[in-house]
Amino acid sequence: MSATRLQPLACALALMFSPFAGAVAIPEIQGSGTSSPLLGQTVSTEGIVTKLNNNGFYLQDAVGDGDPATSDGIFVFTSSAPTVAVGDRVSLTAEVAEYNTGSASNPVTSANPLTELADIVSLEVLSSGNVIVPTVIDFPETTEGELERYEGMLVRLDTPLVASQNFFQGRYGQVTLAAGSRLLKPTNLYRPGTAEALALAGENARRRIVLDDGTSSQNPSPIPYIGEDNTLRAGDTLPGLTGVIDYGLATNDSMGLADYRIHPAEPVVFERVNVRPATPPAVGGNVRVASFNVLNYFTTLDQSGAACFPGGTRSDCRGADSATEFVRQQDKIVAALATLDADVVGLIEIENNGETAVNNLVDALNARLGDSVYASIGLPEGGTGGDAIRMAMIYKPARLALDGPAASDIDPIHDRPPLAQGFAAANGERFTVVVNHFKSKGSCPAAGDPDADQGDGQGCWNVLRQQQATALDTFVKARQSAAQDSDVIVMGDLNAYGREDPIAALLDAGYQDLLSAYNGQAAYSYVFDGEAGTLDHALATASLGTQVTGAATWAINADETSVIDYQTEFKPEDFYAPDAYRSSDHDPVLVGLQLEKRIVGGAGRDTLLGTPGDDRITGGGGADGLAGGDGRDTFVYASLRDAGDAIADFVPGVDRLDLTTLLASLGIVAETALGNGQVRVLDSTAGARVLVDADGPAGAIAARTLVLLRAVSAAAIEPARDFGL
What we know:
alpha/beta, CATH 2.40.50.140, nine-stranded mixed beta sheet, seven-stranded mixed beta sheet, 15 helices, 17% helix
C-alpha cells in the first residue's frame, strides 16, 4: 500500500508549524503498532483540527514525520461537543488512552483499540483557517490492517466504492462500503474451508471499509445518505471519498464484526446504480411457485397483554409491537405478495397460532386484490412444531387444486417441521411443494459443542442443519412414494449459503439448485455483515427440474435500508411507505414451471382431445383430428409425415404450433422461414391453412398443408406469437 504526500510543501510547513518546547508529535504518540508506546502517559502535543464528532475531534500533525508506518492523526475525546473548529491549530495536554470500541471479550476490537487523547488537562487554540491536504491512499489494502497507519488521519480514497450493507444506516449512521464491487459471501461461491473460500474472505476484508457519520449518537437526525426514493440501496456507488480513518464496530453486537471506518469530511451523495425492481423477474412457465420469509408476521402483539406460543409469555411474541406497526407491516407484505402474483407461496416466519395469522394475511391480500384469489392450505398432519414461528402456504384455488392433505415432517430434529402440500393443475399434472426453515446461525452453543462456530464461515449449528437436510430428504422421498409422483420442489430459508454443507448434502442427494442454475452462484437473497448470499433456496427433484423455466430472487428487501421498514422505534425521520420495499429482510424467491399434459398419438389417424388445462399434443403420423380444450395448448410437429391434421379449437394468442423440430429436419433456418415463404398461412373456406414449403415458393418442391386451423382467419395469426420456429 502506498500514499501520495505532497512533499514540496514539507519544508515550508515545518517552519510555519514548529511545535512548542516539550511537545510530543502525534506520530510519536501513535507509534507503528496498534497501541501507543506512550499509553497511560500525559503528553502535550499540537496539530490542526480536521473533523468534529459529537464527543471529540480529530487532530493531525501539520507536517508529519515522513514515516509511512506511523499515523499523523489522532482522536481527541472531549465527552461532549467540542468547542474547537475545523482548521484550528491547537495545543493540548491530555492522557494517551486506548479505547476498545467493542466488548472487553471481543477479540477483534481488543486487538485493534482506537488510540486517543483523553482527560484533557489544557487546550489552547493557536490560530484558525489552517488546511490539511488529504493524503491520497490506495484502496483496497494489499495486506489486511494496513489502514492502521492512517488511524486519525484525513485521507482521500479515489477508488470507486459500492454500498454493500445499509442495515445500520438509520441506527448508527453507518454504511458498509467495498472497493470496486459488492462483497459476496465466500461460502455462497466456494466450499467452506477451501483455498478459494479463504482467499475470497481475505479479499473481502481488504476491500471493506465502513462509512460512519462521525457521531457516536444513535438514531441520527437527519438520517445520513438517504437518496432517491427515500432510500439507499446496496449496490449504489460513490466515485471516491474524503474523510478521517478510525476503527470500530460495524454492527450492533459488541461481540460482532469491527473494521476500519471513514468519517466523511465532505457531503456524501450516492449514485443510484441498483435500480429498484418494480416487478418480479420473468421466470416463464404456466405455474409460478414462490417462497417468502415475512420476518415474524404475528397477529398477537406484545403490547396487547396476550401471550405467545410456545412459552405463553409476552417475550415469545415477535414482529409488530403495536396495532400501528402491524398495519404498516401487513400493508408492505400484502403489497409484495400482490405483485409477486405466484400461484403458490410458501410463507416462512408466520406466528405459530393455528390458522389465525396466515388467514389474517390471506384476508388482507384478498381485500387488496378485490376477490377471493388466495386461500391457505390449512394445518398439516403431523402438527406445526414447538417453535414460536412456523411455515404456512397459500395458493390460488382457481389455478390449482389441493392434491391430498398438507403434511409436516414429525422428525424431532426439526423445531419448525417442513411443510408439504401436493397440487394438481387443471390438466392433471401434479407436483409437491415443501417449505422449510432450518436452524439459524445465531444463539450459539458453548465452545466445544459440535455445533459451535468452527471458523469455516458456516456459523453455528451447521451440524444440526446437516441433520435437518438429511431428514428433509427422507421426508421428500416418503412424500414421493405416498403421492406416487416424483415432482417435488423444496423451497424456503435453509439458513445455509449455496456451497455450505447442508446444501451440498441435498445436491448430493440429487436435487437441482435452481437459483444458481439460472443466475449463477452469485445469486443472493440476504445481506449479512456486508456480504450478499443465498439463504433462501429453490431445489427441484430431477423429474421436476426438466419442467422448470426459470428461477430468481426479487430484490425488494435485502438491498433496502431498514429505516424504511414498518417499525416506528428509533426513527427520528419516518420514510415508511406502504409498498413492497423492505417488507422483510429476505428477498422472495420465484420459480416458473411449465406443467403440460403430454398427449401423443400413434402413426395412423387419431382423434386426440386435450384437458381443461395446458397440454402439449403431438399427433404423430396420419391426418389427425385434434382439440386442445381450455388452457394454453401447444401442438407439436416433428416431421412432414405429421401433416394433414385439423385443429378444431386453436385460439390465436393463446395456443401455439411448435415447428422447431420440423424445420430443423428440413434444413429450414428458423429466422428466415417466414420471410422466405417457407412457412406461410393462407385462408380457406374451412379456416387458416399453415403451409410448409421446403424450398420456398420459387422452388420445385410443392408446398404441403401441415395443419388446418378450423374457423380461424389467416389475418388472426401472428407467426412470431403463435408459432414456435
